[in-house]
Each structure stands twice: as structure tokens, then as C-alpha cells.
Amino acid sequence: MEIAFTAKETGIFRKISEAAAGLGVPCYLIGGFVRDKIIGRPTKDADIVCLGDGIELAHAVAAFFDPKPPVAYFKTFGTAQIKLGDFEIEFVGARRESYTHTSRKPEVAPGTLEDDQNRRDFTINALAVSLGKEDFGTLIDPFNGLVDISNQLIQTPLEPLQTFSDDPLRMMRAIRFAGQLQFAIDAKTFAAIKENAHRIRIVSQERITDELNKIMLCEKPSVGWDLLYKSGLLKLVFPQMVDLQGAEYVDGKGHKDNFYHTLQVLDKMSEKTADLWLRWAAVLHDIGKPATKKFEEGHGWTFHGHEVVGAKMVPKIFTRLKLPLNDKMKLVQKLVLLHLRPISLTKENITDSAIRRLLFDAGEDIDALLMLCNSDITSKNEQKVKRYLQNFELVRQRLQEVEENDRIRNWQPPITGELIMQKFGLPPSKPVGIIKDAIREAILDGIIPNEYEAAYAFMLQKASELNLQAVE
Ligand code: ATP
User: Fold this and answer.
1) How many other C-beta atoms lie within 10 A of the C-beta of residue 464?
2) How far apart are CA 356 and CA 440, in angstroms?
3) What atom of ligand 1 comes closest to residue 31's alpha carbon?
């Protein structure tokens, strides 16, 4: 099989081939780059393994380019990198690995190409292409990775139980590749993941969360989350999500399985946006449901206040998963808190005031909120979905109309606290807050328009109610 390198890649690989021949060191392209080339996925980084010193080879390769690129190298790991524009090439000596039970960091020793291929996680990741002068471009595929690529199958080159026990991060990687490539995981490999799931505890949270985020950014993230659930890994890495699973019945009345509902919402959200944090908001939108679930006689299942409880859980979950506790977390929290608001507006006579309040509370995140709310409409009953979507469209239109009129979305108070203090000779104090809040409420309730003149007159009126005298 010939691998279709671009002309630029061929030029670069020929130079590497020359440099390696000069040193008398056999070298090979290996791993993800080869896999992605065969699949036809876009590639940017290439790994080169050589039977010698990777750092020395990198320096020799750099000398073939004009201008000569800098070589970044890490002596302790024996690795070196060269960047050619946006193409990054990493060089390392072939190695053999052996593991102890308590760590996923192996003992390493120099090895053959075969040793190096044996230490790879999946057959599709163990393919190598020779960059030797004589056999340039020859594929070396000891584990039939090519067949697995065409069968769209993920399996380990060696015994899977051992492979996953050695480095349990590989379990997360298997599931992530299944999601990214839309490949199946071979049954024996998957059984070994189930059996080794408990070993995930020796993997750092950062590495686990890295994989979760990659699963999250897949075209259809539900695939990875579902595999995490079925493998038993999800219970260990994110138990709150597993609590969503299952439908309970009382008096023949059930509720929907909130785990699968959440996955559906996530996939629908992912069709609309590639933003990681909006996708996290979809995963977490109903996370407060298990804690608020009740069966009410004559009413059925309720989850009152789940949006408030869920929003409170967001920082705790972010902390545990070592996701950043920054504005992105705040955005996710806000969307979880507000996710019922747009749809609740369809149930009543929509007043302008309710619309203005939603615009005010959502602010510039109103579009993200509407996206989540739209994705949240799932049901097996197509009529119901159609009706909900129509109602939702009405709310969207009203939001647009009211926003055009009243410009609430990026609301800035027309009267500032400073102006109130100056006008009535006040220090920063309670009455200033009372007047400011009253102006905001009057605007949101439609008592006065969102304009300076009207707000100024309202301020004077409110101040006289508080017996405040203007000082100028
Ligand atoms: P991506 O860049 O999308 O993460 P990749 O396959 O290039 O995919 P890297 O993490 O860059 O993944 O790893 C490069 C190669 O190193 C892999 O293709 C695989 O052969 C090997 N590899 C990486 N991590 C492991 C691991 N934990 N166990 C065994 N082999 C691994």
C-alpha cells in the first residue's frame, strides 16, 4: 500500500531519510500520522522513531533546511522537535517499556522497531512507514492495523488486559478514538476495559479530563459518553452523570431516562456549535434532577428547582474534574440556571416584561441559551416536539422584537450611581442602590422606556418618595 503524502511532506521526509542515512540510523514514521494519512483525516504532527539517538537525528535533519529551524529537545526523555511552519515533527529513539503495578509511567530502555510497535496502544496506532533510502515508503504493519482501519475497529496489539492494566489511560483513549473516528471497539478489548476500569484511579485527573474534552469535541459526543457509561468508567470519573441514568416507575407512571435525554441534548447542541463550554452546558443542564426528583400524587414525577440545584453543582463538578474555574465555568453555570426560562415563557401569556427580564438575565449569552433550550426539546412523540418547537419559535421572535425596541441585552443603567450621588449629595449608601434598582425594575416592567430622560424623571420621583433633596 502506498501512502499518499503531499509533495511538501515527501520533500521533508526525503530530507529526513538523507540525514538518517548519513548517521547510519534506520528511521520510521509512526503512530497517529500514519493512521490519519491512511484514513484521510487532516494531519499536522508527525512522529519519527529511529534506531539510535532521536536528538542527534533531529539536529542532523535541521541542518538540511535553509533557514535552519531550531531544535527543541528534552534530554531526560530523549525527544526532540522541529517546527516547519505549522508542521511539527517529533524525533525519538525506539524503546522498550516495562510497567510496575502502581504507576502508568514505564521503565524505558532502548529497543528495536518491533519493541516500539509492541508498546503502542492500538493496532491502528502501531503502523510504521520506513524512511530508509532503499525501502522509502514501505508500510510495516505487524498487527494488521490496516485491516482494522478498513474494518473500523479498535483493538490492542498485545493482550488487552495487560495493555490496559499497564497504562489505564489507554481505556479513555480507546473510547475517545471510537468517538473521533466513529470506529467500534473490538469485543475482547472492550471486555478488558470493563475488567480494568477500576485501574483508572492511577491516572491523573488532568489526563482523564483531557480525554473527556476530546470526547466532548467529537462530531457526535454521545458515542464516547455512552461507551464510558457501558464500560463502568463513567461511574468512577463522573458519578453525577451516571446518577441521571434510569427511569423509575410509580403507579405505572415513569419519567424519561435523563442520561439518554442528556446525550440527545448534547448531540443536538453539538450540531449547532463546536464550543466546548456550550457542550458542557448541555451535559450539565439536568445534573440537578436526581437530587430534586419526587413523585407527587396525582401529578407524577417532578424535578422542581433542578436548575438551581444543578447550577450550584457546576463549580463542584468543575473543581473535581479540574476544569478551569473561570468565566467559562460561570457561563456554564448561568446556562444551567436559566435553561428552563425560554420554554417556560411559552406556557403563559408572554408579557413584554417577562421577555425583558429574560433578556436582562441572559445578557449577551441569550443566543447560547436559546441554542440549549432548542436542543432540550426531545421526545419520542413527534407531535409534541413539533408543538414545542413552534412555541419556542414564538418566544424567539418576541425576544427579537422586544430587544429591537428596548435594547435590554447589553443593558447599561441609563442613570449611574455617580449621577444619583451627585444630584442628592449622597455618599455611597443604601438609598443610591434603592433608586438604581427601582429604575431598573421600572424599565424591565415597561413602566418607563429604556431612555435617559424618562429614567431621570423617575429618579426624581423616587427620590422625593425617600425625602431626598436635590443639592443643585
Ligand atoms: P491525537 O494527536 O489525536 O491525540 P495520536 O494517535 O497522534 O492522536 P498522541 O497522543 O499524539 O496520539 O500519540 C502518538 C502515538 O503514540 C499514538 O498514535 C500511539 O502510537 C502512541 N501512544 C500515545 N499514547 C499512548 C499510550 N498511552 N500508550 C501506548 N501508546 C501510546
Assistant:
1) 11
2) 11
3) 18
Q: How confident is the model at residue 348 (pLDDT cuts 50, 70, 90)?
A: low
- pLDDT at position 208 over 90: yes
Among 81, 96, 121, name the best residue to mutate to test ligand 1's pocket (greatest count of ligand atoms within 8 A of Cβ).
121
Q: Which residue has the cell 432548542?
A: 374
Which cell numbers hold the place of 294?
A: 419526587
Residue 268 and residue 250 in contact, taking contact as beta carbons nearer than 8 Å: no
Q: Please write the tens of the pLDDT for every residue from 224-236.
A: 999 999 999 999 9
Q: What is the DSSP letter of 69?
A: P
For ligand 1, residues with CB inside 6 Å are 31-32, 47, 119-121, 125, 167, 169-170
Q: How many CB atoms lie within 10 A of CB 40?
A: 8
Quote the CA–CA distance of 289 and 471 in Å, as a whole number: 54
What distance in Å separates the CA atoms of residue 31 and residue 34, rounded to the nearest whole number? 6
Task: Judge whether 261 and 214 are in contact, CB under 8 Å.
Answer: no
Instruction: Supply the pTM of this predicted model.
Output: 0.92
* Closest CA relative to residue 266, chosen from 275, 136, 410: 275
User: 28 has which bridge partners?
Assistant: 49, 130
Whole-number pLDDT of residue 472: 66
Work out the number of other CB atoms within 10 angstroms of the CB of residue 133: 11
Q: Give the C-alpha separation, 15 to 6, whole Å.
A: 14
**CA–CA separation, 405 vs 408, rounded Å?**
9
Residue 94 identity (one-letter amino acid) = A
- Amino acid letter, residue 312: K
Instruction: Assess whether pLDDT exceeds 80 at residue 451.
Output: yes
Distance CA 31, CA 106 (A): 19
d(CA 307, CA 302): 12
The protein residue whose alpha carbon is closest to atom 28 in ligand 1 is 121
